[in-house]
Structures are given as C-alpha cells and as structure tokens.
Write a structure and sequence with these properties.
Length: 242
C-alpha cells in the first residue's frame, strides 16, 4: 500500500513596507525569485509547516488589493498572512504586543471580514483599516468606544480579496505606537516612501524645521523594529504549529 505524502501548506506572506518584509525574509531564510523581473521583488522558500512566497504590498488599501491579487497570480496559495505593524487603540496594549484580529473592518464602507485560525495563537479583537491616519483624539475615542483594538492601512483590503476567492487569511500585527501618542501625525507618515523606506529629503526638511522632535523619531523607529520583530516571530511560530 502506497501512502501519499502529506501536502504542504502553500502560504503567501504580505508585508506593507520593506522594513516589515525584510525581517520576515531574513528570519524565514527566503531567497529572491530571479524569475520575477517586474512588479517588485518576490521571495520564496520553505519554513517548518509551509512553502512560502513573500512580497511587499506598499502602503494603503489599493496597493494591498493589487499585491494580494498578484500573490494569487504567482502560484497556488491556500492561506494568506499579513505581517506588519499597527497603531494601538486599546490602552492595555503595549509596544511590541502582537494583535491577531478576529475581525477586520474596511473603514471605507464598513465591510467586516473574519479571519481564520492558524496554529495555536488565539484570535481576538478588531482592527479598522483606512487610508487615513486615524490619529485624532476624537477618532481615537470613537474607535475605542466601538471596541476597536488597533488600526492599520492594508489588512481589510487583503481580506476582501481572500474572501472573494474563498482563501483563508490571518493577520499578525505588532503594536508600534498608539495613535494618540504625541508626534504621530501626517507629517511623520510623509517621511516614508510608499515602500516604507525613508524619504531622505522629507526627513532633512523635518529635522531642520522641527529639531525638537528628532528624539521622538528615534523612539518611533525603535518601537517599529520591536513591533515588526514580534509580528515575525508570532507568524513563523503559528506556521510551525501542527
């Protein structure tokens, strides 16, 4: 009697920005796919529990829609992971905590999408996703009153495409800041290019005009790295779970 070998999970990993994608690529030991010469780099490899293709979405909902569609075009996929950072709304969350939301909400139309379990990590909370930086005090209070855990700018767009295709998805978002923190505003968001790398011209202008906020930028950078590393560890751990 011939027993068929178990089929390995085929997973697409999406990270919004280069500083979120590269730590996953490094930790998972992925290699850039030389056959993909347009549309941005694609990385492939195997980790305990899955074969993985990883790519960057860019920042924002439309970019995320295009990226997850591209991920499906690259080959078979039976689970999608979103790995990256989020802004905390729940005051109990600390920098570096990882949110694995049960539900994500598209801030554009209110559509809700329920995630799928992966590994032994329990899903909990709600993430609201929007192209806007939801950092105003009144917005924060309103979101907290609605039971929102955190906010990001991509997950609901990915979830919508997965839902339409009948493919399960899970998000691992490390808390890098709290939206109500001083110094989190559109001027800080503008310091990054769409891939998350620094816009050095904007950074130089920011430093020249607001030198007193340089220590805050350094703190934000450290907190982002802490959040990314935590999200990467959590996602790889979930993939390795039987």
């Amino acid at each position: 009697m011939v027993v068929a070998a178990p089929t390995r999970r085929q997973v697409a990993v999406l990270a919004p920005m280069k500083p979120e994608l590269q730590p996953f690529v490094k930790a998972a030991g992925l290699e850039r796919d030389p056959a993909v010469t347009s549309g941005g780099p694609v990385y492939r490899g195997s980790v305990p529990g899955a074969d993985v293709v990883a790519l960057m979405t860019g920042i924002g909902m439309d970019a995320a829609t295009r990226a997850v569609t591209r991920a499906f075009e690259l080959g078979s996929c039976d689970h999608v992971l979103v790995v990256g950072i989020a802004g905390g709304i729940d005051p109990r969350l600390r920098i570096g905590d990882v949110v694995v939301p049960e539900v994500v909400v598209d801030g554009r139309d209110g559509a809700e999408y329920r995630s799928h379990p992966l590994g032994r990590r329990e899903q909990s909370g709600r993430i609201v996703c929007s192209d806007d930086l939801l950092s105003g005090h009144d917005e924060q209070v309103s979101l907290a009153d609605q039971g929102v855990t955190a906010v990001d700018m991509e997950t609901a767009a990915v979830a919508a495409v997965c839902h339409a295709r009948g493919v399960p998805w899970t998000a691992f978002r490390g808390i890098s800041d709290h939206g109500a923190d001083d110094g989190i505003d559109d001027s800080v968001l503008a310091l990054s290019r769409p891939d998350g790398t620094a816009n050095m011209g904007a950074v130089a202008r920011y430093v020249l005009t607001k030198p007193w906020r340089v220590p805050n930028l350094a703190r934000l950078g450290r907190d982002m790295q802490r959040a990314v590393d935590a999200a990467v560890r959590a996602s790889l751990g979930a993939l390795a779970d039987p």
